[in-house]
Write a structure and sequence with these properties.
This protein is of the alpha/beta class and about 325 residues long. Helix content is about 25%, strand content about 25%. The longest helix is centred in the middle third of the chain and has 12 residues.
Length: about 325
């Protein structure tokens, strides 16, 4: 048998992306039990010495960890693969949340890759950027649809070969019948989209009570779970200076924030000279890396999409997706 289905009893013991030895199987678990409810995990038998790097975490779990164990043969696996929703249905739900027509005219959004031979959508992987590491993760998870916030196809491709990483991504999707969808700027303008409230690609927020710029830095780091940000203090101001207005834009905020009067600009990245211009005009600037300023939204959207699809599809967050820039 190639697969084993396990019903997990002790959700708190599970660690994301860890491997466990059980009944002579090396089993990869991909997510914790959602909100304490037992869940069914399908795990492929594999050889840890050849398929997985030694740096991964291995544990041995007793049989009592599981409430049910059943082995799935070819027929059962065929039945499992036939479950799920039609791609058109999933797309209709995505469009209802944010129509591709809302995207900027220069953007490339919507369904970017559609397999010629359709298959039901049972597993969806959410990522901010589709990299080769995320693509490999998607294949290991038997993903049917990848939703990548940034469109992997932006500059037109003249060929689909193995020469460049972008070409390899699209070729891999087609070869494995994985659909690819990108919402990008269509998510930026909906009420519950990438920015936190209101409408438009940026937000101007008025705080209920003033806080220091140092407290603002701490709140940003905690909210998006990163250890460092870059801070440019306004001229003649210090870290104890109070702020009451914040203009924010996820991603690259130069074009959106330019000319906006606020005590603080919060965004992912900006051009050097625009930062200089801002601080000389009395505005603090916090930069927290392009994708780090966007990625947090996917956590809440995973729950939103699960509800939109009536809990009939497994929606996962990529564990491989991360900003390429690190402060060292």
């Amino acid at each position: 048998m190639n697969f084993v289905s396990l019903k997990v009893l002790h959700s708190k013991t599970l660690l994301k992306n860890c491997f466990f030895s059980f009944l002579n199987f090396d089993i990869k678990f991909y997510r914790q039990v959602h909100k304490g409810r037992p869940n069914i995990f399908l795990a492929k038998r594999c050889c840890k010495s050849t398929l997985f790097p030694r740096s991964r975490c291995y544990q041995h779990l007793p049989n009592s960890f599981f409430s049910t164990v059943s082995y799935l043969g070819a027929a059962e696996m065929a039945n499992k693969s036939s479950e799920g929703l039609a791609l058109k249905h999933v797309l209709s739900k995505l469009h209802a949340f944010a129509s591709p027509a809302l995207a900027e005219s220069w953007d490339n959004v919507g369904l970017l890759v559609e397999p010629v031979t359709p298959r039901p959508i049972s597993n969806i992987l959410l990522t901010n950027d589709l990299t080769e590491a995320v693509m490999q993760e998607a294949l290991e998870l038997s993903t049917d649809l990848i939703i990548s916030y940034h469109p992997p196809i932006f500059v037109p491709l003249k060929s689909l070969t193995t020469k460049t990483w972008k070409e390899r991504l699209i070729a891999t999707c087609l070869e494995n019948r994985v659909a690819l969808y990108s919402p990008h700027t269509s998510w930026d303008v909906v009420k519950d989209g990438i920015p936190v409230a209101g409408h438009g690609t940026g937000r101007l927020c008025v705080l209920k009570k003033p806080i220091s710029i140092l407290e603002a830095v701490d709140r940003v780091k905690k909210h998006i779970s990163i250890p460092y940000v870059r801070l440019a203090l306004a001229s003649n101001k210090d870290q104890d200076s109070l702020i009451t207005t914040v203009a924010l834009c996820p991603g690259s905020g130069t074009s959106v924030l330019k000319g906006v009067k606020a005590d603080l600009w919060l965004t992912g990245e900006m051009f050097h000279h625009d930062v200089l211009d801002a601080v000389h005009k009395g505005t603090h600037v916090i930069l927290c890396n392009h994708s780090d300023s966007e990625r947090g939204f996917l956590t809440s959207f995973a729950d939103t999409l699960t509800k939109l699809l009536d809990d009939k599809v497994c929606v996962r967050l990529s564990l491989s997706d991360c900003d390429p820039l690190k402060t060292v």
